[in-house]
Amino acid sequence: MAAGGTGTFDNEDALEWIGGFGADGANAIVEAFDNINNLDPTDYIEAEIAAHALAAAELVAAARDGDTDRLPEDAVASLRENAAKINAAKLLAAGRKAVSRVLKQSELRELWEDSPDAEDWEDDVRDLLERLKG
């Protein structure tokens, strides 16, 4: 996997998505989760869609627990502006479902499988799932 690291925002797709988050707020998160959760269980999840869902899940987790350490610096202000709406939208269950699907079967997972950092990536995604537990 060609990325700067195993974290959610260590890839271009997630960074691109987070750049548009401020303008769309909670609606962008809902859309990112729906792009996965509305697929049939056997449908293929492309890497870009998976990366967007992970980025959205990071925002939901940060809005819930206040831990912004995993977010890019320029996203923290947008998160703070939208945190109440994100929490009010009750996105934890949708986020858990989307992240679980990415972790189980997605192009993004396949890209990481051949990497020496695959276990670190998986641990990072599992940590995100833990943060999304309500």
Anisotropy-based shape:
globular
State the separation between the terminal residues, measured CA to CA. Answer: 31 Å
Could you say how many structural domains there are in total?
Answer: 1
- Beta-strand proportion: under 5%
What is the strand and helix layout of this fold?
Blueprint lengths: L11 H13 L1 H12 L9 H19 L7 H16 L3 H13 L2 H7 L4 H14 L3
Helix pairs in contact: 1-3, 1-4, 2-3, 2-5, 3-4, 3-5, 3-6, 5-7
Structure write-up:
The chain has 134 residues and is mainly α. The protein has one domain. It is built from 7 helices and no strands. Helix 2 packs across helix 5. The radius of gyration is 13 Å and the shape is globular. The N and C termini lie far apart (31 Å). 39% of the residues are buried. The mean pLDDT is 93.
Write a short abstract of this structure:
The protein is 70% helix and 0% strand. With 134 residues, the chain is mostly helical.
